[in-house]
Every structure is written in structure tokens, then in C-alpha cells.
């Protein structure tokens, strides 16, 4: 079938297949002898001889379709040009130091290129001049291309870049306009030389180096094994000895730890008896005559001296485990040092030793650790008096000097000078070492433990200062302390609210409200204090001093304390920590996690002075923490503070209920419990038979526990609390609904309007009907104003 188109004549040949047909299309144009590419519409005719006539704009064509045969001329190919970097290479032309083409490209069968000559172009052409524009060219670089590529028959060239080193064969073939061409192709070989590091010689060198390295490593390994084998015998011989020494060291270390632990435990045990000495003595001093005061002062002084020794032992333990920390607070350091120094006046008079305190500045407000500075001065001054004979002199001199260290405004220099026995020069470097003891005359029997100066130096270092000594035997000693400081303009500068609460014990004594213990529901009822203490003497001492103000309940261990807290519902609990069966920490955790007792304030008493122990107690919910020995007046003030705070919470909860408790944010277990109670009452407010028993079951509490909890939080019994919720709901309905008073009465759970009216008037001092009228009048006035 022949078709005339705007682009020439098209011959369509139908080719039958197995199950379908395919079409072969062959196009003819003016290069094949046509008058032109375009033909007129309907200008076609087939003659009786079978000839076809097609008319166009430039005439017509008439031909016999049977005489049209494919072109069987075989196009012959030749290579016409070879270019490197877009530059044609001629025969015998030198390029980059060597000849690439020894003869013309058309006669060349092989080319060798360096690895740097990596951009080249090959041009080719056909020697068939019959319709050359219809000749199709295909090429392929064997070893690089995966298939034949079609070339542009106008340019007839192929370009390649960055070929790896190796041998390639470039092939090209051509097809004439009728698709006839040789199955063979024109080709020539291209050799691309690899770079020098990929050359065969390079790989040989690499192999030699690798073998050499492996041999070297093997030789070193053999030498190492020989040395190890030689040393193994020596190790085996000494291994048993080393293991024995290690076990001995381990045993000695464990023994040292046991000794230190025993020493620490004994020191802690000293604190409770000391509390039972110091506290009663302080109380007796307030009622003793002058003669008794002298004896009591001597008892108190020696008890505190013993306490200081106990504290030194505990500080030594903390130094061993690196638990010492600095707790700086602002204060007048000059006044503080003066007070500590002048407290030795009695000792000076008793030993007939002259004592002088002199300062170059009257006051200096800065930040320092009060406890550690006191311990530093106590150790140095007490040593000065200890090693000075009667008739000698002890001086404490205070001055201020400049400091070149950044962040410091100066140095406080403290000199503790005595005319005692002195220290030999060769031993002055050792006196600050632990357990060092100097040789002293036989007349001085108070040798000391040898850890006081070691602790003193550690405390000075913690302040960023330094301590030194100037001494000469039989002429006395001078200890020099230099502490950097930053000046505070006012005594209160740098104080946080937490610091202000802890500086002086007077800060614990609150205003006039604190002095009066909170009144209970019944005027004659004292607040109840539960004392949990395993030491009978100490428990008796606390009870004896608290019984005039509080009703006291006693428990000898944590387990007994827990049972009495559940049964007696005390107002506050004072508990020791170290107790049998259940510790104070375990008791506090149990109290704070149980909804029946979580509201009870807890004060923990302990001989443990570590911050980790205090933090552990406070983290589980303890309200306060005191270390033994302590001032009883401070304990009493803390008990009163917590009772006042509890009473404040009670008023706060009650006030929140008067406003809108359901919108209050949840902050603790007490508020969550109160919210749950309110929600349950509101959900069952229509139920006139809602009882305290049902409410306690829903809250998973006994009736007694619920009664005490609600009374503590709101100041009302559960029945009164349920009634107040009903009345508040009634007020809301009176203000915001059109319901009658009788309807509201039943809606909020009252069984008769008369009873509802009575309770409403008792609570709000107005009848429900009058309250409704007043609300309507207010609304009318508001509407008239608008």
C-alpha cells in the first residue's frame, strides 16, 4: 500500500506473524526522484497497467510499484580523522613527546595512547554517494560500551574521555537508505597505557613491599613471642608473691575500712549521749545559782570539747571519702573571729596565760563557711594554749592585705602566736600530715590525736587560702592563715531566702503567731506529738521538755511508730533515723506515701551529719532535719512552725473551697485526695443517702482515717463537708437556673425543703427565697443601667 503525505511517499508493507500482523514503513522523498515532498489531496491514480500516479505542487510522479526494489549497494567505511583534545593528529606528528600515528588514520590498525591523553575523537565516513544523507552509522568501543551507539550522519564522529588503562577495539558500521549494509564493520585497536602507579612494574614493587612487610611483622612477632616466653617464667615465679602481697594489701585495706567504719559509728553513737548532756545542762543554767553555774559551765565546756573531738573524727572520715564540701554564707568575719577568739578568755585565766586579740579592721562583710572557720580557729588556738606553759602568751592578730589573684579583693591574714615549746625546723613540713605527733615534754600529757592540723589545712584549702608556720624550739610558734575574700557592702548582700533561714537560731523563732501553738477544734486539747526514738533516755528527755506544751505519744522503733501514727493520728511526728525493725527514713517514706498519714509533718533527728543522709531524708518528704546534738529551743520552734504551717494549709484549703475548689491546681497528695472527694460528692450530689461510710469506701480509707484527714484539711467533719458542697451547689443553681427552691432542694440531695431552708439560713444567714429575690433585683438593676 502506497500513501502520499506532506513528507513524501510512504510504502506500507503488511507482514503476517504467528497471531498478529506487523507493518513495515519505507519513506521516499525528492532525493529518490519525486517531484517534491508534498502531494495534493486526492491527486492519486492507478492506471490499467498497474502504474501509480501521484500529483503534487511541482508536477506528478508515475511509476510501477513492482519495479521499486531495495538499494543493495554495500556502503564501504573508512576512518577519516583522529583528534586529541579536539586537535587533529597527522601521520608521524609528535604529540607529548611521542608519535601517535605512524601513517594515515585510514591505513592505521592500532594506536597507543598515554593515560593522560584521555580525550580523543575518531571521525569516519562512507564511500557510497547515493543518498549519503540516508546512511546510518553505528559505533562501539569494545571493552567500554555495552552496545552499539548511533552516530550523527552529519558529523560522523565518536568522542571518548577518561578511559582506564587497557586494550580497546573501536568498531563502526553503516547502513544505506534501504537498511542494507555489511554485517561486518571497520575497526582498529586502541591501547591506553596505565599510569605509572598502575603499571605492571609498580604492582611488582607493591608485591615485594607487601612480602617484605609481612616478613618483618613475622620476624618481630617471633622476637616478641620469644621475649614473652622468656618473661613468662619470671612472671610465674613472682606471680605467687605478687598475689600474696595483693591479698595482704586488700586485707589491710578492708581492715582499715572496718576501723574507720567502727570509728565513725562510735563517733555517731557519742552524739546522742552528748545531746543528753549538753541540752539538760543548757536548761539547768537558766535556773542555777552562781556556784552551780560554774560547775555546769565546766560540764558544758568539756561536753562541747568532746563534741568537737567527735566532729573532728567525722571530718576525718569525710576527708577519707572526699565528702567535705564548703557551705559559705555572708557575715562579718572580723566579728566572727573575735567572738571565737574571746571565748578562750576563761582558759587563759585558768592557765594563767596572757591572751591578746588585735585586729586592723573593725568589720569586714564577706562570704565564708562559719562552721569551718570556727573549727580552724578552735584547733589553732586550743593548740596554742595546750603547748604554752603558765606565764606565757597567746595572741590572735587579724589584718588585711592585697591579693593579686583574679576575683579576689584582698587577703585576710590571721596569725595565731604563742610562746610555747615550738616545733623543730625539720618537722615543720610534717605537722599538717595526718596522725603526725611532735615530741613533747613529759609534763604535757595532753598529746592529741594528730588529725586536727590536717583537718585545719583541708578547711583552709577549701576556702582557697593557705596556711604556714614559723616556729623555733623553746621560743613558740606562729601559724599564718591567708584567706581570699570579696567585700560585701551590706551585711545582707548575697543572702538568699534559704540562707537567711539558717544563719542564726533566732531566725527560727517566728513572729507572735508562732509563739502561740495553733488552737485545735477543742480549746483544751493540746497538739499531739509522736516521739519515735529507740534511746530511752533521749526519748524521756524530749518527752519531759515537751509534755507541758504538747500531748506526747511514745514509740521505741519505727514499726511501733507507724502503728501509733495510724491509730492515734498525731499532729506532728519527731523521729530518730537509726532504729531497729524500721528506720526513720523507712518510716517517713511510709507515712508520706499513705493517704491516711501523708498530711502529718515529720521532723527527723539523727547523729548522721552527712549531706547525703540529710538529702535522702528531705527527698522522701521529711519536713525538717536536725543533727544531734541540737539546741532544744530550735527543735521547739521548728515544731511550732510546722504546726502553724499546717493550720495555714487548713485555712487555705477551706478558703479554696469557698471560692471554687474544682479549679485549684493539683500540687500534692492532700489536694489530690480532696479533689477526689469533691468530685465524688458532686457526682452523687442528688443521692440524699450519700454517707461517710460510702465515701470512705470509695477513697479506700477507714471512716476514722477519712474523718481525721478531712478535718485536718478543711476544718470540717465529713458530714459537714458533704453538706457544704450541697449548699454551694444550691447557691449556684439559685443564681444560674430557673428551678424552684423545692426542685433545687431535691437536686442537691436534701430530702425536705424545710430542712434545706433551715441549713441554708444557718450557713448563709439568709433564706433561699430572699437570696433568690436579691439576685433577681441585682439582675434587674444591671439591665436598667444598660
TrEMBL record:
Keywords: ATP-binding, DNA-binding, Kinase, Membrane, Nucleotide-binding, Phosphoprotein, Transcription, Transcription regulation, Transferase, Transmembrane, Transmembrane helix, Two-component regulatory system. It catalyses: ATP + protein L-histidine = ADP + protein N-phospho-L-histidine. Residues 675-774 form the HTH araC/xylS-type domain. The modification 4-aspartylphosphate is found at residue 576. The chain crosses the membrane at residues 196-217. It comes from the Bacteria. Residues 528-643 form the Response regulatory domain. GO terms for molecular function: ATP binding; DNA-binding transcription factor activity; phosphorelay sensor kinase activity; sequence-specific DNA binding. Its EC number is 2.7.13.3. It is an enzyme of class 2 (transferase). SUPFAM superfamilies: ATPase domain of HSP90 chaperone/DNA topoisomerase II/histidine kinase, CheY-like, Homeodomain-like, Homodimeric domain of signal transducing histidine kinase. Pfam families: HATPase_c, HisKA, HTH_18, Response_reg, Y_Y_Y. Residues 265-487 form the Histidine kinase domain. This is histidine kinase. It comes from Mucilaginibacter gotjawali. The gene is tmoS_2.
